[in-house]
Amino acid sequence: MNSEIESVQHSNIEESEMGQLHALHLNENAIAAVRARMPTGISMEECEDCGEAIPEGRRLAVQGCTRCIHCQTLHERNK
């Protein structure tokens, strides 16, 4: 009887680990998809839509950005 319990416990652990690995794989794919859509390169100093200055923190955080946060938000909503 102990071997039956051990077998069930062992299979539950394996199922749990497989579920965690699957979730990790999905997360990695989601992160890769987001990175693929992110701009790259040198950020613009002025927004291409409104002409206002793009804050340095944004330019450093989002390489290749071409819009201020406000205009980028509007752009993404209108897609």
Polypeptide structure, described:
The protein is mostly helical and 79 residues long. The protein has helices at 2-37, 56-61, 69-77. The mean pLDDT is 82.
Summarize the structure.
This protein is mainly α and 79 residues long. 65% of the residues lie in helices and 0% in strands.
Question: Which helices and strands appear, and what pairs or packs with what?
Answer:
Layout: H1 2-37, H2 56-61, H3 69-77
The structural class is mainly alpha
Mean pLDDT across the residues is 82
Largest sheet: none
Tally the beta strands.
0
Number of helices: 3
**What would you call the shape?**
elongated
Proportion in helices: 55-70%
Give the distance, in angstroms, between the N- and C-terminal Cα atoms: 61 Å
What's the helix-strand series?
HHH
**Radius of gyration, rounded?**
23 Å
Poorly predicted runs of 5 or more residues: none
Task: List the keywords.
mainly alpha; about 80 residues; 2 domains; about 65% helix
